[in-house]
């Protein structure tokens, strides 16, 4: 595989390893279950990305049949059209006739363009739906960090009735943050898998948006790790 191509299988294997690490460290954590869902998404991304590189044969055949049928109908109409005599032509509003013909040609051209670009638009819609799925995953990872405040662990303070329970040590909390940051990074890599086989401006913009989102969320997590004073090691 080219060094300039992202290996989707390697991304899947990395997510699988990360899922194992999370479940081994935090067996009952929702973060581990979420990483399992991310693994399924990555496996689907590999298949979808390969599909984007292949033509939708049934759609192309249908497009060709419709375009050819339209052209045959146009040619047949012209051939069967009875030309007027010179005397009749003198009384025909030539400008209106010409305008009607131009309008028909423009409408047919728009219809042909719609059919020719239909395959790309179908693929774009599928890719953007997949990007939305990744965006949701990134926000869910961020939601898991909301109640995990390193200051409460390092500086203590009085608990209230609504305070979240602190069950992790400093080391465990650091590992949890690190796993979350890795998940966000891998979410961005899955987005990159889609665009490498589908050159579309809208999909590329969505992938860049996800990369920006995951980078920003990961930066927030690493600020918390820094506050802990120790990133911890396995």
Structure description:
The protein is an all-alpha fold and 234 residues long. It has two domains: 8-55 and 120-151 and 169-228; 57-118. 76% of the residues lie in helices and 0% in strands. Helix 2 (30-52) packs antiparallel against helix 6 and helix 3 packs antiparallel against helix 5. The relative contact order is 0.14.
Distance between the termini: 31 Å
Share of β-strand residues: under 5%
Oligomer: single chain
**Regions with little confidence, pLDDT below 50 for 5+ residues:** 230-234
Layout of secondary structure:
Blueprint: H1 8-25, H2 30-52, H3 57-80, H4 86-89, H5 94-116, H6 118-143, H7 150-155, H8 170-195, H9 201-228
Helix pairs in contact: 1-2, 1-8, 2-6, 2-8, 3-5, 6-8, 6-9, 8-9
Task: State the gist of this model.
With 234 residues, the protein is an all-alpha fold. The chain has 9 helices and no strands.
Output the keywords:
234 residues, 2 domains, disordered C terminus
